[in-house]
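tool_call: predict_structure(chain=1)
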Amino acid sequence: MTQSSSIPLSVVFALGLTMMLGPFAIDTYLPAFPLIAASLGVTIHEVSLSISIYMVGFALGQLTGGALSDRYGRRRVLATGLCIFAAASFFLASVESMNMLLLGRFLQSLGGGWTGVSIPALVRDRVHGVQAAKLFSMIGMVAIVAPAIAPAIGAALLELGTWGLVFVCLGSYALCLLPLLAATVFRGPHKPRQGADGVGVLGRYLGVLRTADARPYIFWQTASFGGLIIFVTYASFIYQGHFEQSRGAFTLLFACNIVAIFACNLLNRILLNWLPPARIMLGATCLQSCSGLLLLCAALLAWPVEAFLPVMMLYAGTLGAISPNIQASYLDNFPRSAASATAVMGAAQFGLGGVASALSNLLPETLVSVTACIAACAVISFACMLWSRRYSA
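tool_result:
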């Protein structure tokens, strides 16, 4: 089995830059929410539904793309996903109604799902175990740059043109990834992949769901990530609405959370030299649970933004140590059907996360409601951690 140290840095950066597409699609247009709402004649609250639609579509894209990737190869599915994403982005640049915005985001997310499902599978094709966890961390450190700079890029683009320019740039970025991947990840002669296990699409997914050791990781990752999705959905409301911060301040406050994820991701890679992934996941999940409950306390006690921010950074930062290790531990169970396994986890992660985000729109738009949802995700994540230990004991 190839070790991570033998994988060229060009491949690591190419995979990382491709993973950046997802965060760019979610975070780049966040500063434009007030402008989009005014342009389409809706509220910011309604515009935030486009994030939920993206999550659900991304999940469906992963489900359809996962089995196809195992059967027909990573290159075809990845390239097709990028083309779909680009076409939908150019369409979004000129929409004039809320319905068209949601339709465009759904199509964009399908392409994003086909793209996103291929990255973990490409990692599992090359390494496993601790080496996979390290490689996921390396790719994550590249990809984490996206949510840190995305709002700033979006704000800068708004100074140059309308909010449609944000989507034009997203489509152009997706197209630029095609030659980059061809020159790095898929360099050399292409060998068609054979079916993962000789069964159909449904059979592959059922096989994943029947793997008892893997099930806790699916819901563990979903709950851990779900809290962050809720935060991202309401980040504009939290900082620009509740705490009454300017657009520039919002960009900096949002970036602080990404810096925390990057720092924990780097720390995770260092700790993997001495500790197994399971030990790191346990500690990080305990910290995440505590910080989730603290966020609820911060809202109930009306803490100022200076006190709220460090707790939010701790909650977000723990994902940098949870996600890479969960992915590596989970995919160790599927050496021949990594894309199908990734699709199941991705569908749960983004599908349930998107549904939770959408349902949260039914709650009052208050900081207490948002933090209560985040705290609930943290508690569920902790319960899934305990569930997983039943199989490792």
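agent: The longest helix spans residues 98-126. Proceeding to next step.
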